[in-house]
Amino acid sequence: MKEEMTPREIVSYLDEYIIGQKEAKKRVAIALRNRYRRKKLSKELQDEVVPKNILMIGSTGVGKTEIARRMAKILGLPFIKVEASKYTEVGFVGRDVESMVRDLTNASIMLVKEEQKEKNQDAIHNYVINKITQKLLPPLPKGTTHSKQDEYNLSYEKMKKKVIDGSVDHLKIEIEIPKKSIEFQEGNLPPEIIRIQESLTKVFISNNKDTPKKEVTVAEAKELLKIEASEELLDMDSIRIEGLKRAEDDGIIFIDEIDKIAVSQGNSSRQDPSKEGVQRDLLPIVEGSSVSTKYGQIKTDHILFIAAGAFHLSKPSDLIPELQGRFPLRVELDSLDEETLYQILTQPKNSLLKQYIALMKTEDVEIIFDDSAIRALAKLSQRANEKTEDIGARRLHTVLEKVLEDISFEADNYKGQQVHITEMIVHNALDTLVENTDVARYIL
Predict the structure, then answer these.
(1) For residue 151, what is the enclosing H or E element?
(2) Per-domain boundaries in the chain
(3) DSSP string over 257-304
(4) Domain 7-113+242-332, classified CATH 3.40.50.300, yes or no
(5) pTM recorded for the entire structure
(6) Which pLDDT score is estimated for 440?
(7) What is the side-by-side order of every strand in the sheet holding 304-309?
């Protein structure tokens, strides 16, 4: 976890993956740094400092979600992305807003579990190797002479080395398949009901004494026994406690499409009360309340909420005033112009062009893009965004697929060759589509 990163370092990291949007990156970096600063304060003052939630305003495909996701990844923070439009007011059929906090808790528990697995990698590896070696060379019965035991120990060590280096991977052994606990989707069920369901499942599993056995190769057993090793070696209680704490102090919930639950003044359709109802239900969660999960109570006071929306048909002031007040930091993201689209194609660490070149490399086809071709891709993507819906950088996926469609389909014919993508190839593939608005609306 790199939570001590400075705002400048966070922005520098984001710059490797996301072009432009300096203001948005800066706001997010400061919000994260403030959480780190809060932990340095006295306990009394910690409770008073609340996170400064952020409202991002910008068209689709300009990098809103990517900024939040990337920064959560580098800092190792519990993060979930949800769509505001899929929630309904309490009393309507659908997901209630509290389920987003339960989803965050699940993500946090999984994050801590993966970290523990990483830390206990050696112990898990040794457990698996010893278990397989004992299957290949069963222990001697009690009362065996010392000389026999010494011989067995030598043979055991030799066999263990063979298991490690993979020379016995082809041999078959019989192992007990660990019984998987059934995971219940929480949905809108109260956590108490979830816990009862899990308790009943455990009773049924424990009453069923027959442990299924399966004959597998040593190579397969190495993977299958990792689950058993994790269950045996990891302390699930401490993982649960740490997971809850991490969700409360470091959790980030990214609420996308928040403009879809805003009610514009001129709109008085029958769905409006439901939209306002979702806002009212969301308010206590963002303000700070306790939510019951199957792992225990979780307080939302210090969870960072980042909301985002295009606000084409509505505006931020159409949200209820109390909810607006809970998103004090607002940042408007820039629309992507031709030059920005060109930079998106060429500059990021794993840019789209690098991805397509790597994909075709697996077929032994070397794709080379001329700079003029990349400029043409950016120009035509920008023009398509202007003529139809502006979908930002996502347009680049569409135009690249169209340009490389035939080469990708007939990759076997190009095996071992270099394929130059020129400006002419790009124009031949896209000009007609971009200029014909009706066709572009459906194809691009």
Answers:
(1) helix 146-165
(2) 7-113+242-332, 126-239, 338-430
(3) -GGGG---TT---TTHHHHHHHHHHHHHHHH--EEEETTEEEE-TT-E
(4) yes
(5) 0.78
(6) 59
(7) 79-83, 252-256, 304-309, 54-57, 329-332
Q: Which residue in the block uniquely carries the two structure tokens 């026994």?
A: 225
Q: CA-to-CA distance for 219 and 271, rounded, in angstroms?
A: 57
pLDDT at 132: 86
Q: Identify the helix (H) or strand (E) that includes residue 96.
A: none
Distance CA 159, CA 164 (A): 9
CATH code for the domain defined by 338-430: 1.10.8.60
Which residue in this structure is represented by tokens 């076997």?
412
E strand or H helix at 80 = strand 79-83
**Phi/psi of residue 91, nearest 5 degrees:** 105, -20
Name the DSSP letter for residue 314. Answer: S
Residue count (the chain): 444
Q: Residue holding tokens 């102090």?
A: 249
The two domains 7-113+242-332 and 338-430 share their CATH topology (first three levels equal):
no
Q: Which residues pair with 256 in a beta bridge?
A: 83
Kindly tell me if the per-residue pLDDT of 321 is higher than 80.
yes
Alpha-helix runs per DSSP H in 79-145? 98-119, 121-136
pLDDT the model gives residue 270: 45
Rounded to whole angstroms, the Cα distance separating 229 from 126 reads: 9
